[in-house]
Design a protein that fits this description.
There is one protein chain. The protein has five helices and no strands. Helix 2 packs parallel to helix 3. The chain starts with 5 loop residues before the first helix and ends with a helix.
């Protein structure tokens, strides 16, 4: 599985930027949050608070529930030069990536 750095995931998803100091004085990211992020293909380096992890998980869950492209798919689509990456569905991304493999 491809692990995408969280900042790259937020950028690719077209989500609002997450302030660097969000949750700076909150409790640290939990092991459960780290596991959830990794399961969704999002790296945890640089996520220093539970609040920041929650915000990123909300974006990931929103995308999953709506059947949108995964972080790894979005990264591949960008490499292929596909526009509007953040709006692609899982099925569309799968088809585009599958068709590019035949070149």
């Amino acid at each position: 599985m491809t692990i995408v750095p969280y900042k790259e995931f937020i950028e690719l998803a077209g989500a609002a930027e997450i302030p660097e100091d969000l949750g700076r004085f909150d409790k640290a990211i939990t092991e459960a949050q780290k596991a959830k992020l990794r399961k969704r293909g999002i790296g945890t380096t640089g996520i220093d608070s539970s609040r920041k992890a929650d915000r990123i998980l909300c974006v990931a869950d929103y995308r999953f529930k709506r059947g949108l492209a995964t972080p790894g798919q979005m990264r591949t689509l960008r490499k292929l030069g596909v526009p509007d990456i953040g709006k692609k569905t899982f099925a569309e991304a799968t088809a585009i990536i599958g068709n590019s493999a035949h070149w």
